[in-house]
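Sanity check record (used in CI):
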Amino acid sequence: MSVSTYRYPNRVSYFSTQLLISLFLLVALTATAQSNWIARRPFNLSAITYKTGLFIGVGTDNTVAISTNGTTWMKSLIGTNYQLNGVTAGSPVTGVVAVGVNGIIFGSSNGGYSWSSKASPTTKTLNDVTYGGSLYVAVGENSTILTSSEGNTWTVRYANTPVPVALRGVTYSGSQFVAVGYGGVILTSPNGISWTMRQTNSGAALEDVAYGAGKYVAVGGYPSNAKLISTDGITWTTQLPATGTDYNLYDITYGNGQFVAVGYYGTVLTSPNAITWTKRYLGLIETMQGVVYANNQFITVGTSIRRSTDGTVWQATNAPDGQSNLTSAAYGNGRYVVIGNSYSSTSSAQVLISTDGVTFNRTEFPTYPTPSDVVFGQNLFVSVDYYGNILSSPDGVTWTFRKLGSSFKAITYGKGRYVAVGTGQAMVSTDGLTWTPSPPLLSVNFQDIAYGNGLFVAVGVNGAIYTSPDGLTWTSRVSNTTNTLRGIAYGNGYFVAVGSGGGNVRRSTDGFTWTGSGNSSGANTGSITFGNGQFVIAGNTSIMTTLDGLNPVPKSTPSSIGNLNTVRCLNWQFVAVGENGTILTSIADPMPFTVSGATLSSCDVMRPGTQYSPEIRAVRFMPEYSGTFTPPMSFSVTGLLQPTTNPDAIIYPAVDNPVVTIVAWDSQGRTASFAWNWLSRCSNGLRKAAEEVSKLQVVVLGNPTRNETVEVEISGVVDESVSLDVVNEQGILVSQQRIEKESIRERHHIQLGRATGLYVLKVQTPTQAQTVKLLKQ
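Expected output for T9SS type A sorting domain-containing protein:
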């Protein structure tokens, strides 16, 4: 995340050396909460129906799946986090009715796009609902049966069963209702009001029932996995499963001249007569919960959605897939791009794209089986994989393949270049198209790479840490651990690496010298990112946060998620992805500004070192602040400088204390800190050393704004061309400028669109880039 930077211009006199022995104010900082994580998982659907041109699926996570063609799916919210077990299409009044846990009932009159809760006369879980004979009928636990003529007002009906049983499925044949349940229970009713129990001589746990071709067929699971067949709903015969078809079944439908039943481990069975059954290949290993036939096709749902026109050959859809092992994510050009691969034997790449971070559309790439990482830079997504492929795409949809022959695990963008690492060699590119290999890095197996403070840092197996100024020349560093380091990030003046072996955490202020130990939770950690003033660490199913890499604080996450592989800070929110198609998002907790660094004005030797005491320097500096803040600013240096509002200060550190902590707060009491390695900016042979001034800085003068233009100040560019591009929330280019020769500091007016909302300004030179968000009110 790039932010604007503002520097105070004025200077003040030296402070007294008495500061060395004075009492100091200690300012306590705490990591921001970052505790609200939302699951953006694939559809976890329990049931599906069809009405007036729309397939409508319901399940968990407060979401409804809607499709006009069975291939392209969108999400709608239903208004409950309770699980919904059944859905049906019925009368014109309420239209679609969904039922679920605790007796909840919801209705929709517009095809599932909006829903309203209905008063329910029961708190027993409802498992299924059907419509027929101008009546809705819902069935559930404890022999519960409810009816309604319009879907709004519901009445309890009596079912005469010897003991209360779980009724799991119900259907209407055109002349009667049939309900099935555990213990081989089957009930029939001509009107949905009075019910009669039928003799089956079966103890099977029946899950659902369908009618077609003059037959009722009930399916289920334990203990026999038998199918029960009847021509009238009264007399039932048991058909034992044929060899190879002995699977728990959870739903059944009839269409296109055949019965189709779905169930455990991706099971799909088809039969033209309910006697002879054929197992079909779905390409999944997960349980399918529902199936429907409509609009000349079968649709089966679970945590994945598959479609078929004949029940024999099944195709994937664009819906996010529970079969996906998601490995990385990036954001650029107005869209999120998440990559991964499927678990099936015919593994293929999965690319999920979203413009809002909420609804994701999926595409498969069968020839690209195992993508490992993706990054965005220079208006280009670049992805790498384990087989030496490097792909590039401007939009995440159309990808260009390049085979480079190495195994890549991670990629980053910094210093105007992409750097990919993995086993044996690094690759570098300034455009994402043409790649240059580094010299061989024998016996090195990198797991991650980050860029910060002018340095690329890669970590890997056996505690490997390497640094490079350009991605081509690499130097090994001592990590003091032999455990695998799986993630690396830079922020708040620290490189922080995390890994296995009790949650190894390694820290460094310069990338050269590393310290650290296991984290407080003891859990293994797999990935780390920095954004909005904090580090976020993900591993297994846990997420932790910390300001400086020390004492990570565990955060609560949604239940039933897969192991997390990667966490990233994208478009001002954190995104974690992992197994079972898991996507978690968390809007970055408010941290309106950060201490982004310090400008060194002078570094003078005040007292030479002796064998008894270290050398002391007089260090004059100005803090740098990024983001939004309200002056006047106050700051201190822990142990060296009392709180002051003077923007230009002096401290007197000893050379054996090379890293100091700058603590700052604005007039509203908002705080931030920064670990500053002042000594790395002081050359031993020089009495004065200037901070690098060629760092691109972008300051927005008036943000938010009500105008169609906004003024920005650009500094840190000397005799380079600068492009200024503005896009709206949809990623559409609004305005574009190009300055051929930029001076050290200049101001420019940027054109926004007429519409209110969020705009993104990207300022780019041939070697640097900054992105700033603009809000028009």
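Residues 494 and 509 are 5 Å apart (CA to CA). If this sentence no longer matches the regenerated tokens, the check is flagged for review.
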